[in-house]
Specification:
Number of helices: 7
Oligomer: single chain
Strand order of the largest sheet: 1-2
Structural class: mainly alpha
Distance between the termini: 70 Å
Shape: globular
Largest sheet: 2 strands, antiparallel
Radius of gyration: 22 Å
Length: 292
């Protein structure tokens, strides 16, 4: 016999937010599908296109699973949703990693240093491992759910409740720290190496990358605050928005670069979207734009 899952204002708000965010992802995909067809589909498969495809389509699987969990209203005694939740979390993490992979590739392109690339990858691994270790230490307590019945308090039934945990604050903090470091690095590259470089492609490249990182930092800060301060039933509100903002911004940066390349009226030596280099510089960004 099935039992109704507990729902309060926080859980209901989390469900509404995640379902609405899934709708935003689908809507953005529909309005940018033409741009993807024009700028991506006819290109050869490269590493950049591969991670772009992951950042573009994995969120549909991860958030789709979150969407299904949000619509669930009952569970059966003895049932466990732990495996389902783990699979959903893995897809969420892979979506973020692929979007951040595009960001690291752009930074590597702007500096062309294998040592820098290795340092960024090592730093990313350190952030991920550290956040995982801290989240398992019990430094942040996950409370039980108050169920309105005579038995008063019972734990989450088989992890089927639509709830997150406060321990995920360490994941958001690690992402925020990583993004802040990359943001400072990109500012240094922009005003040190490309200080006197002008052109539409150059502006698009750096401006869109900065907007991406600012958006991620804002979302991560909001997730940290929402994970720490409100009642625990509100924590899951940021599950899907975090993934959507990564996917949407990463895709639009690529489309904008393609569009800027077309509007510039130039035939660059390399394709900006494949991130190649000539003489240690982003050669396609270093041209004078007659429209400037």
């Amino acid at each position: 016999m099935s039992t109704a899952l507990y729902v309060d204002a926080g859980i209901q708000a989390s469900k509404y937010c995640n379902v609405g965010t899934f709708a935003v992802l689908v809507f953005d995909y529909c309005i940018t599908l033409e741009a993807e067809f024009q700028w991506v589909w006819h290109r050869k498969w490269t590493f950049v296109r591969f991670i772009f495809t992951m950042s573009r389509y994995l969120p549909f699987l991860g958030i789709g699973m979150t969407f299904a969990a949000a619509l669930r209203t009952q569970y059966y005694p003895g049932e466990s949703c732990a495996g389902y939740g783990t699979a959903s979390n893995v897809l969420h993490i892979m979506s973020i990693v692929s979007a951040e992979g595009l960001l690291i590739t752009r930074i590597y392109a702007s500096w062309n240093s294998k040592r820098l690339l290795a340092s960024l990858l090592i730093f990313a691994v350190i952030c991920v491992v550290s956040s995982y270790i801290l989240s398992e230490t019990g430094l942040v307590h996950n409370s039980t759910i108050a169920i309105p019945n005579p038995s008063a308090f019972i734990p989450d039934p088989g992890y089927c409740e639509f709830m997150g945990g406060r321990r995920f604050v360490f994941n958001y903090a690690a992402l925020l720290l990583y993004e802040v470091v990359l943001f400072c690095l990109m500012l240094f590259i922009r005003f040190r190496r490309y200080k006197h470089t002008v052109g539409r492609l150059q502006r698009t490249f750096f401006n869109d990358t900065m907007k991406y990182m600012i958006g991620i930092m804002f979302m991560s800060s909001f997730s940290i605050l929402l994970t720490i301060f409100p009642p625990e039933t509100w924590v899951s509100i940021t599950d899907s928005p975090q993934i959507v903002i990564h996917s949407v911004l990463a895709s639009r940066i690529l489309f904008n670069l393609r569009e800027s390349e077309r509007r510039s009226g130039t035939q660059p030596q390399v394709d900006i979207s494949e991130i190649h280099f000539v003489g240690g510089q982003l050669s396609i960004l270093r041209f004078e734009d007659p429209c400037v």
